[in-house]
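Example: Response regulator.
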Amino acid sequence: MPLRTFSIAAVDDDHRLLESLRDLLESAGYSVRSFKSAMSFLEDDTALSESDCIITDIGMPAIDGFELNELVKEARPELPVIFITARHEIADQQRAVAQGSHFFRKPFDGQALLAAIGQALQSGDGG
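Written out as C-alpha cells, the predicted fold is:
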C-alpha cells in the first residue's frame, strides 16, 4: 500500500518564494498548493480541509500570518502552521513560539524547514 502524500499549503505574497517552496516541498514528496494571500487561502473551498500543514508568511497585506493562524486554529486546532518572515522583529518570533509554531527567517535553510514540517506532521500540533 503506498504511503499517504501529505498536502502542504504555502501562503506568501512573494511569488518567487512560493515557487522555491513548491520546488523544495515537491522534491521531498509533498503535494503543494500555493496561495498568494491569506484571503485566497481562506476563500478556497478545500484549502483548509485538505491541508496537512500550512507554511505562511507573517507580513502580508490585509490578513497577516498571525491572523491566518488564529482563523485556522478556530476551525482546525490540530493543523500545524509554520511561520516564515523577512522581518527581523524579536516579537514575531516570540509570538510564533508562544502559539506553538515553528518560525523561520528568510532566507531559511531548506533542510531545517523540511525537518520542522516532518516534526509538525508527526506531532500534528504545529510544534
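The chain has one domain: 7-123.
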